[in-house]
Amino acid sequence: MLTLWLATVFLLSLFLVRRLRSPVAKLPGPWYTKFTSLVLKYHEFTSNRRLYIHELHRKYGVAVRIAPNEASFASLEAIREIYASGGSGYDKTELYDLFRQFGIKTMFSTLDKYNHSQRKRELADRYAMTNILRAEHISAIEDRAKAFVSRCLAQRESVDIYVWLHCFALDGVTNFMFSSGGLRSLDLDKDFEIMEELTYHQSLQKNLLQYYLPNLAPYFPSRLIPRRAPKTNEYVLKMAAQQAPTQHSLVGKLARQDSPLNHAQIAAECKDHMAAGIDTTGDGLCFLMWELSQPRNRRFQEKLHEELWCAAKDTPLDRLPYLDAVVKEGLRCAPPIPMSFPRYVPGGGRTIDGHFVPEGTIVSCQPYTVHRLDDAIFPNPDTFNPDRWMQEKGAAERNRLFFAFSTGGRGCTGRK
Ligand code: HEM
């Protein structure tokens, strides 16, 4: 019995010494994060991770330890190191395995830089501004925008724009990806069902269980398995098998004759981009329209209206500075992906914003905090104020800290 006690005390001491001597323990942060990740996990499972981390940053500054093997940063220096050093920054963590589609790795869910850049090469030109601005893509967006407005006008009283903006995003993204095969969920019930399938679900806790208990996941009862999307799957598999897809669409590039991707890989890639584009665009626009509708923001709405009203009809959308400011401010206040984008520190460890962090530590930045922490750059950070983007003073600093699309080689391909 005594031997068992001694062994337990020895192992416990070893554990404590190791934790205390780790360079991560030297980062600022609450004492308990030196020993356990349970508090962080509690906040993850109660959907509060982002606000918990934000509060820690407010208390401890730009670098904070959030678990024995995990740290969060909120500075330009850290963003550049983690997400852009060597072009694409550090490798992703296994959290991204949850984003495989049909069980297949996509560009987004590929963890390492080499395989990611190989895949990106296959499709990057589809997301270049020159392709996005092609008449066929622009006219599809215009058509869907008109359908959205008609939907709103058809309601006599209030309008649930959350629903119709998610339809707008789904129609826009699928028309870009599949051109003539794009959806019309703003007009057709059967396409509307695909929007519901993709948008209305709360799978966070179920996804986290799969991430933390991957070996047990195959034995989970059905109520613990994230919701499936059979109608979406059927649609995407059909679109990926098109014999003659429109030339400038995403599928047109992925399914070209000499493509190294097979049908399942093409379908997985397309489903991933569809998922990536819907909630982000729908949520972002919904927040923006809500802010603009508030009486306190009337002056911003009027300025935007004036810019659009006075502009020549053929003014390219990216030459309207106030529109740009309004969109950026919406994404700054409510980034559609507000939480950490986790990465592993590479072999040998790295110095991040002056702190040495050992290899294998999980590090990240979260847009919600990056857009708020430094109130010299973003004064009154919680206030929606597009005018801040119109000031010349501090413009470079503001733009450098704009992190809604992440940055570097693994930043959002769909941002344009
Ligand atoms: C307001 C709208 C959007 C926002 C805020 C947004 C944000 C982001 C962010 C933050 C990432 C990186 C996430 C990470 O590293 O964990 C990302 C990646 C990605 N996004 Fe977006 N996104 C938006 C719209 C779109 C659209 C419309 C598409 C496609 C049609 C798209 C396609 C992608 C893809 C394919 C990736 C993976 C890039 C890669 O791994 O190289 N996004 N997005």
What proportion of the residues is helical, as a percent range?
40-55%
Overall, the morphology is globular
* Derived structural class: mainly alpha
How does the major sheet shape up? Answer: 4 strands, mixed
Number of helices: 17
Q: Which ions and ligands are bound to the chains?
A: protoporphyrin IX containing FE
Report strand %.
5-15%
Give the helices and strands as they follow along the chain: HHHEEHHHHHHHHHHHHEEEEHH
Radius of gyration: 23 Å
Mean model confidence by pLDDT: 93
Give a nutshell description of this structure.
With 416 residues, the chain is mainly α.
Report on this model:
The structure is a single chain. The protein is globular. It has 416 residues and is mainly alpha-helical. The protein has helices spanning 2-21, 38-45, 49-60, 76-84, 113-123, 129-132, 135-154, 161-178, 189-199, 204-212, 230-240, 250-254, 263-293, 298-310, 321-333, 367-370, 395-400, and strands at 63-67, 70-73, 343-344, 350-352, 355-357, 362-365. α11 (230-240) packs across α13. The chain is 49% helix and 5% strand. A hairpin with a 2-residue loop joins β4 and β5. A 4-stranded mixed sheet has the order 1-2-6-3, sandwiched between helices. Strands 4-5 form a two-stranded antiparallel ribbon. The structure holds protoporphyrin IX containing FE. Residues 107-108, 120, 173, 273, 276-277, 280-281, 284, 336-337, 341, 404-406, 410-414 line the site of protoporphyrin IX containing FE. It comes from Aspergillus lucknowensis. Keywords: Signal. This is Cytochrome P450.
